[in-house]
Amino acid sequence: MLKNSYLFLLCLALSLLLSRVALSQTVNNEKNTLQVNGKGVVTAKPDKADLTISVDTTNLNASTAVKENAEKMNKVMEKLKSQIGKNDKISTTGYNLSPIYTYDEKTRKSELSGYRVSNSIIVESKNLEVIGKLIDSATQAGANRIDSLSFDTDKRDEYRRQALVKAVQDARETADIVAKAAGVTIVKIIQISPSYEIPIPVYREFALTAREAGAAPPPTQIEPGELTVNASVNIVFEIQ
């Protein structure tokens, strides 16, 4: 009986000793860290534009509305094709034929009063200087709706990389300032997590207004503005 008790106490003591050693190793393996965030911003000029133009026609007869719309849109496209560059393109984005109903107060019913045709195209141009001219030419040729104009860039990846580099530099500068103020030394990077925002195209809305009879409208002026690319990074440094 005494022998068994002795063995039990010996095992218990050994277990406690091993636990203390393991705990000591865990504490010793814990690293002091410094975590910082960095931000990088790059502004860039757009290098392409998407212009959406529409022709709307109405008529009592559906086939007549379709024919009138086709004639106007053909004129619009012919005019635009003569002015865009060789790397630019025009494509149809939407076509719709729908009935028009008018409410009759006498019969208290909605009566068919005609048909509306809407035909939309998008002009993708690399020459931003001619956008105003394209808008004027399209409306003069028969377009009666400018739906939207957006500016974007083909250099998204290049600007994204530039923004990420700035974010990392910002994080490192912040870490150096904090470490110096705290009296510690940065050893190495333990973890780094980058992220960025894809630049959102700049949109402009247009509304066509009635032209004064006999008066030549002023040319449309377009200013593309700038795109902004934002990047951020989270870095964990080991310090001592």
General description of the model:
With 240 residues, the chain is an alpha+beta fold. It has two domains: 30-47 and 154-211 and 218-240, Protein of unknown function (DUF541), domain 1 (Translation Initiation Factor IF3, 2-Layer Sandwich), CATH 3.30.110.170; 48-152, 2-Layer Sandwich (Alpha-Beta Plaits), CATH 3.30.70. The chain is 36% helix and 39% strand. The chain contains four helices and eight strands. The protein has a five-stranded antiparallel sheet. It has a three-stranded antiparallel sheet with strand order 1-8-6. Strand 3 and strand 4 form a beta hairpin. It is elongated and about 85 Å long. The two termini are 54 Å apart. 18% of the residues are buried.
Question: Brief overview, please?
Answer:
This protein has 4 helices and 8 strands, in the order αββαββαβαβββ. With 240 residues, it is of the alpha+beta class. The strands form 2 sheets. Strands 3-4-2-5-7 form a 5-stranded antiparallel β-sheet. The protein has a 3-stranded antiparallel β-sheet with strand order 1-8-6.
